Amino acid sequence: MREDLKSVDPAAQALLKVGAQKKIETSFERAEKLKPCPIGHQGACCKMCHMGPCRLVGKEDEAMGVCGASLPVVTARNFARMVAAGTAAHSDHARDLANTLLAVAQGEAKDFQIKDVRKLNRVAGYLGINVEGKSVNEVAEKVALKFLEQFGQQRGELAYLSRAPKRRQEIWKKLGIAPRAIDREVVEMMHRTTMGVDQEVNNIMLGAMRTSLADGWGGSMMGTDISDILFGTPKPVKSTASLDVFKENHVNLVVHGHEPSFAEMLVVAVEDPEMTAYAKSKGAQGVNLVGMCCTANEILVRHGIATAGGFLQQELGLLTGMIEAMVVDVQCIMPAIGELSKKYHTKIITTTNKGKMKDAVHIEYDEHHAMDLAKKVVRLAIDNFPNRKKEDVVAAAVKPANMIAGFSDEYIEYMQGGLYRGSYRPLNDAIIAGRIRGVVGLAGCNNPRICQDSMHNFLARELIKNDVLVVQTGCSAHASAKAGYMTPEMALDNAGPGLREVCEAIGIPPVLHLGSCVDNSRILTIASHIAEAGGLGDDIGGLPAVGIAPEWMSEKAIAIGTYFAASGVPIIFGAGSPVSASKTLKDIMENKWWDMVTAGFYFEEDPGKILELALKLIDTAREKLKIRKYESGRFGTERVLMDMAARRAASFATPHGENT
């Protein structure tokens, strides 16, 4: 790979050349010009009070701030605050969805309806709500109110912790990191990391784990479930992915951000014959709705709406000159698109009071008037079509890649046995036999300081060669989709022999698209089901599974990584370490966390070393489980004979909970 290459995506490369010709600066160029602060980048800058900022340099056991805070404490506080911010972002997303669900249940949001009653009843069961004799809306109201309680309750624990394996729940209780309420954990973490409060590194990091768990088993899991209830639980759909999904003869309307409610209504609005007729009256053949970032993933997995890509595609999309309007909500919206839009005819439309932007049109979204607002946005985009300048129109000239998306945890269970015999046991058996070496959750953002998609694509390609099943979310899923890794044919050409056999038998790609960032909670659910299905222990911790975020950039990614580690899944992040200033903190996360939560959190920038570490962690887990040693192309049902002590150590369980 050339060192000067900014992206491995051919469409992105083509549009970057267009930007260079027009002397338009994007995040790629700004990343080259603006180098990160070496002190802050490593987590060694403290700005918690106005005695600083204190830039801690020198020996770790000597460096301290004006107040006397040590380097490990400063680094831990900075990390914990990133966790709190990421948890707040995902959980606020869930709060809005819970309020929408409540409005639907109470008949106040008439443009929405409950799409998946079965999922609603399942969720009610998790929450201890009796559904007998109750109408759908009555159940939905109780579920919504229970979800809203999870943010501010003052006693007890989050209800969804009960969905984790019992062994994992016991670990959280022993360590005192079972979250009590979402908002409480975020607020307490912010309090504990202010000047003069928590000064003990291990204690700060335990608090960070508890806060992150309020995201993974709270906000994110709630957000995923409510979206499924309201908009339908995903199942496999065909679609395409590329910056070349825009159509010259159509009005191109892009949804970008993270919250799915308004995007769902836009899906309906653009298909309204009234809107199509209006578009034709302006000289267009129709309206082409395209997704970007995690909102793209939401409407992709449910409706097959084509995606233009992830975080780093937003400015490049504008460079095509074909976008009439880009509708944005929250998270990962670059302020730069407002200024860039002035060079084109594109309208940027903000939709929430939480996220306004200079040089944008603001249309406040309200679920009580969702369809009227959706049509207003579509009309604005259509009205802008005649303003498109022919000289600005540039096609990336890269054929969009085909893909299959929409693998919810429910569908993965269904595809292994059907409606009445669905089970995770076939997956477990494939792992035990060595056909599947292990599972990797490949997730996280793009970062313009790394050649776009290069690490995501390298790891996805090499992992499946090594018989590792890959599940993806967020911008990482966009990367594999654009590269063509999300078709069943990909397994025939690139997967290892064991994984290929499994993929052929079930008819799935070797890389499964699970959804958006909040849908990392689906991976937690899958891991819990694997543990419950038997044969691989009785906890998430110890499974031959690893999580990787190779091109991360967001605080949300740090929260996700931490809740996976706290749940027992080893985590590897690329793109630099925010704790590298402190050897003490690095040791805690890479080593001491194994004793506490049976997982470590690693930062490694070299993609080859990330791959090597991931495979080592998977193989070590297989060895500890006493299952067949992985050998490519050789698999069977042989098991290692164990004495009773070894059996107890492995904690094997059958699907019925009996000892093997």
Task: Explain this structure.
With 660 residues, this protein is an alpha/beta fold. Helix 8 packs antiparallel against helix 9 (201-231) and helix 10 (260-270) crosses helix 15. The radius of gyration is 24 Å and the shape is globular.
CATH names the topology of the largest domain as: Rossmann fold
Strand order in space, largest sheet: 12-11-10-13-14-15
Largest sheet: 6 strands, parallel
Report the average pLDDT across residues.
93
Shape: globular
Q: Tell me roughly what share of residues is in helical segments.
A: 40-55%
CATH architecture classification name of the largest domain: 3-Layer(aba) Sandwich
CATH class label of the largest domain: Alpha Beta
Estimated radius of gyration:
24 Å
Number of domains: 3
Number of helices: 27
The number of E-state strands comes to 15
Give the percentage of residues in beta strands: 5-15%
Q: Give start-end ranges of low-pLDDT stretches.
A: 637-644, 650-660
Helix vs. strand class: alpha/beta
Q: How far do the termini sit from each other?
A: 50 Å
Keywords:
3 domains; 48% helix; 15 strands; alpha/beta; Rossmann fold; 660 residues; 5-stranded parallel sheet; globular; Substrate Binding Domain Of Dnak, Chain:A, Domain 2
